[in-house]
Design goal:
Layout lengths: L7 E9 L13 E6 L2 E7 L8 E4 L4 E4 L1 E6 L1 H6 L4 E2 L6 H9 L9 E6 L10 H8 L4 E5 L4 E4 L1 H7 L8 E3 L1 H11 L3 H16 L3 E6 L5 H10 L6 E6 L4 H6 L7 E2 L5 E9 L27 H13 L4 E5 L2 H14 L3 E5 L2 E2 L4 H7 L2 E4 L1 H6 L1 H7 L6 E2 L3 H5 L4 E3 L10 H10 L16 H7 L19 E4 L8 H5 L3 E6 L2 E5 L1
Parallel strand pairs: 1-4, 1-5, 6-12, 7-8, 8-9, 12-13, 13-15, 15-16, 16-17, 17-19, 19-21
Antiparallel strand pairs: 1-2, 2-3, 5-22, 9-10, 10-11, 14-15, 18-20, 22-23, 23-24
Helix pairs in contact: 2-3, 9-10
């Protein structure tokens, strides 16, 4: 009986979708033969004798393994134990939800996912104290750029409280870092569980952008037997000297097993839409322009140092001002890498991605989650909000992700958001920015749209067997795509 952990020799009676399909004839059934971690051959079904362990696809569809190019791994993994606040329609509602939230290890309550920008009332220290009493209580915003604390939490963390009870940007990130610093064993168990859930949705790899010393964490997890996903583990500016002293460079393997590599240097240059801190050329309704947390000179210096040390760069830039500065820094330094998010891009900057070879690492689900915020808060902007088709049409390389836990780690929801620009019954939001399904699927593979993973001889056998053709699926079918099996280098990590 075929089981998770088995190494597959033949996938029998399968139809091919995604990159590589163009080399085959129509929707005919094929047998795919694997040799170790690679595809050895593809032949019409039944033409060649099966070898090794056989996975009978029964006419299901095979696509390349899916990647999530933007994940905050520990925060995503710990989300299962935190009180969900996405449904909170007001500050009073969110505080009431935390009143009955479970008390976690360390004698604290933690909630996550609130969106306060359109609430009819404002968060306050008094309101949260009245609801939560003396137990330290933390509410993390959906975008992770702000945290609402009660007085007991402020006292525990050693921060001065003001009447709002809110911390934003750097201070909020520090609180999240502390909350994420669970015991190694507990945190690693949560990561392993979340990784299995990701594999069950067809994920074979992630880019881990946790604000931690990820090289050490992943070496520990690998030593304990982690073998579910490929991981590119980022470094942050305050860790760059340590990484260089340790001899690390982007692309270097971490630990054993060939699954985890050193990822890019991650630099956060502005805030977010939900916290009203993304750096924009036109004002928000309150007259502000957001926050530029790294100056153009500092950013260029970071990219130059990273490039000299052998690191690619992943630059968080959401507002159009931050995106422009990021592109300027790539141009000045010749650095390689990506702009993360690129949620507001001027028309003039769209072609610069391709010209500079800078990838656009974007999260299509954010366009649906933020459409009402963008309509309310970016109404004065002349730049394009959440461009996809505009970037592709100008030659940019797209790489898709979720920003989990900001959005759910589900590549099919990501694909549906990109292809249909809607969820459920609402009209599509800016439908002119839709992508065709083949392009969206390519963006969800390891190499993105410029060099997508393919189903072809000699290609890596990171594969997903799904219940229907994703290139032809409608919005509900794509979002709810059944995943029958996931293979990582020819080894089953999920079997339905």
């Amino acid at each position: 009986m075929t089981a998770v952990g088995d190494r597959i020799g033949t996938i029998r009676d399968v139809r091919i979708a995604g990159p590589g399909r163009e080399l085959l004839s129509g929707d005919d059934a094929y047998d795919v033969f694997l040799d170790g971690d690679a595809i050895a051959d593809i032949a019409p079904s039944g033409a060649l004798r099966a070898s090794g362990e056989v996975l009978d696809a029964a006419g299901a569809w095979l696509v390349p393994g899916l990647w999530d190019h933007h994940v905050h791994t520990v925060q995503w993994a710990l989300g299962a134990e935190r009180e969900p606040l996405g449904a909170a329609g007001s500050a009073a509602h969110a505080a009431a939800l935390m009143r009955n939230a479970p008390v976690l290890a360390g004698d604290r309550r933690v909630g996550a996912g609130f969106r306060d920008a359109l609430w009819p009332d404002a968060p306050s220290l008094e309101l949260l104290d009245a609801a939560t009493g003396g137990i330290p209580t933390y509410l993390i915003s959906a975008d992770v750029h702000s945290v609402w604390l009660n007085s007991a939490a402020f006292a525990r963390e050693g921060f001065d409280a003001d009447a709002t009870g809110m911390l934003r940007e750097t201070d909020a990130f520090e609180i999240s870092r502390r909350l994420n610093a669970a015991s190694d064993a507990g945190g690693d168990a949560s990561v392993a569980r979340a990784a299995r859930e990701a594999a069950a949705r067809g994920v074979v790899g992630i880019v881990d952008l946790d604000m931690a010393w990820n090289a050490g964490a992943w070496a520990r997890r690998l030593a304990a037997g982690f073998d579910v996903l490929r991981v590119d583990a980022a470094v942050y500016p305050d860790q760059l000297d340590r990484a260089i002293a340790t001899g690390l460079r982007s692309g270097d393997m971490i630990g054993s097993g060939g699954l985890v590599r050193v990822g890019p240097l991650k630099i956060i240059t502005d805030g977010s839409l939900g916290t009203r801190t993304a750096a924009c050329s036109r004002p928000y309704p309150d007259g502000s322009h957001g926050v530029l947390s790294v100056s153009p000179e500092e950013l260029a210096a970071f990219l130059a140092d990273a490039t000299a040390a052998g690191f690619a760069c992943a630059v968080h830039a959401i507002g159009d001002v931050a995106v422009a500065h990021a592109l300027d820094a790539f141009a000045r330094t010749g650095a390689a890498g990506t702009i993360e998010h690129a949620q507001l891009v001027t028309h003039a900057d769209l072609p610069r991605f391709a010209r500079l070879g800078v990838g656009a690492s974007v999260q299509p689900a954010h366009a649906l989650d933020d459409r009402d915020l963008a309509t309310a808060l970016w109404s004065a902007q002349t730049a394009l909000a959440y461009p996809l088709r505009s970037l592709v049409d100008r030659g940019a390389k797209l790489l898709f992700g979720s920003d989990a836990p900001v959005a759910a780690m589900d590549p099919w929801a990501t694909l549906a958001a990109a292809v249909f620009r809607t969820r459920g019954e609402r009209e599509p939001w800016h439908p002119e920015e839709r992508l065709d399904a083949a392009t969206a699927l390519a963006a969800s593979t390891a190499g993105g749209t410029a060099a997508p993973a393919r189903i072809a001889p000699r290609a890596l056998a990171d594969l997903v067997l799904c219940g229907s053709d994703p290139v032809a699926a409608d919005e509900p079918a794509l979002r709810e795509m059944p995943v029958h099996a996931t293979l990582l280098a020819g080894r089953l990590t999920h079997l339905a």
